[in-house]
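> tool_call: predict_assembly(chains=two)
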Amino acid sequence: MIAHKLKPETAAVAVIPAEHKHAQGLSELSFKTYHVAAENKDSWFKPEEYISRINMFPEGQFVAIHTQTHEIVGYTSGMRLHFDATKPLLTSWDETTGYG
Amino acid sequence: MYGVETLVHPDYQGYGIGGLLMERRFQTARRYNLRGIVGGSLIMDYHKVADHMTPEQYVAEIVAGRLFDTNLSKQIKKGFQPRNPIPDYTVYPPSRNYAIAIIWENPSYHKPVGKIIPFKVDQSRWAVGR
């Protein structure tokens, strides 16, 4: 466990816009967060998919980086979507995002 | 804006990093005058009660504060409002493949100014040599 490094009084995480150079780290973060087994990694999200999201809407992609270890510890991704708020959202994640 | 995903490294969960990330997305929504953020919340603790509760009942319990969901409860706290359940959102056994549609409305959104309608000019008034 490395979480003790991040007690509130010593918090050292910076949130910055995601860039292409973060793509490999984002792929690894995804393995860890979703507990992807080694044998399933080939069918999981690849760095290119994070690059594609950054190219589509860079203003909606952010990474949280540990400022001492430079490890990527968090990620959030948004995309532009025309949405009719008077109707329920019923589409699957794959359908809305075009499989990510 | 659609919330594609938000991840926090398992060793770093519980320190408010998800909140910092989401705050940046709220900022983007405000800066670009987007109407809001919509997404599907994977109700990851639903499996604990799924045998005797529908997703609608589960959400009502969470809104009332009687149950806690690791995803949805935090999103409600950040300002998202739950709407309808989405069956078959993605393959995710803990939520029984359900997500709850959640919406954050941008409080500073303003409707863009409508099309400018040009007023008609009586050309004859400007005609030369009459």
